[in-house]
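FIELD: query
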Amino acid sequence: MTDPWVALEPGADPAEHARMLRRAHETFTAAGTVPKPVRAVVADSWRRSARAGVGPDGTASVELADGDLGAYRAEHPLARVMPLFRELLGSFAADGEHLLAVCDEHGRLLWVEGHATTRRQAMQMNFVPGARWSETAVGTNAPGTAVAVDRPVQVFAAEHFIRRVQPWTCAAAPVHDPRTGRVLGAVDITGGDGLAHPHSLGFVQAVARAAESHLALIAPVSPAADTHQLSALGRDEAQLVTGGRRIRLSRRHSEILVLLARHPEGLSGDELLCALYEDESVTPVTLRAELARLRRILGPGLLASRPYRLTAPVESDVAVVERRLAAGAVSAAATAYSGPLLPGSQAPAVARVRRRLADGLRTALIARRDPDLLADWAHAPWGEDDLDVWRALAAVRPTASVRSRLTALESELAAPPGRGAR
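FIELD: result
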């Protein structure tokens, strides 16, 4: 094979190769061994699929529908390049009786468009918007595998792990954020055996590169000079970007800015005092001194008094997560959540916001039942002891390591207080 990511050698008989793959697939599902003619990329994907608990007779599940799907798609970065995808691939899909599909970074399908008859056929295997086609959900398939290995890949016939998908052939390529290199999702072309050609893989890869170039052109180069951006998640000392400057704030100044950013109408001295200090003996003089120091750090004009308020909007990462959650864009909210709000803060109002934000996000993750999102939370420092999330993860991804961790957590919870202390 000259290109391991292409499904068929030049001149190969598609029908004979499909028969060989079906025999190899049956051998793997029965004995767990992969015959040598199967491509390495497919063999590795079959093994990952089996480890994830995917069965060959399974099917994709639809996780987003109607308003939830619309809100999530509207927030997703790939929405900005859908016109480009349609222009480059739309007529090719319609004329060739294929489908154009776009998935997010978790293998969840966002758009499926193309030939009407082919779309109806694809609906029978839940190849529809809102369905999750990651490897961990439905095994080997082009969009899910492209995201998993971060490479353009073609999947032909019985290379698909799930049997009901084996009549299909697909080619997909990942699309990256041009600024960070992060995988945003994948663009896919799905149809019949005619797609098992090197040109289809090269075509979809070129479309993905065109999308990345377009994203680079429309992305803002840098924040405008009059914007103010506050980052306070996952850090004890917030960072404010303002007027081209990056300011690292003390913990107390971080707390003040977080609260004032949430209250553009302003807070009185008494309100701010109660929000910041548990100790009722702290005097207004102490607060005024902190505010005077903060005003000098920020420069003239941004912090006003009577009431204390910010004179220009400050966009915070907290507000971004809250907006995405309110819109039902759970995956986008989880991506923006880089950790608890000012985790070391004891300020009463900050602690309330921290709990409310974390509880709202984890509740949404548990309800969404996306194993990738649940795993990201469970393996983060703030989620490693989160019993409810581990239980939800075990329900949708019952691997040995997940079950082991859940058992350990449940044992710790059941242990009498003080046991183990010496």
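FIELD: remark
The mean pLDDT is 88.
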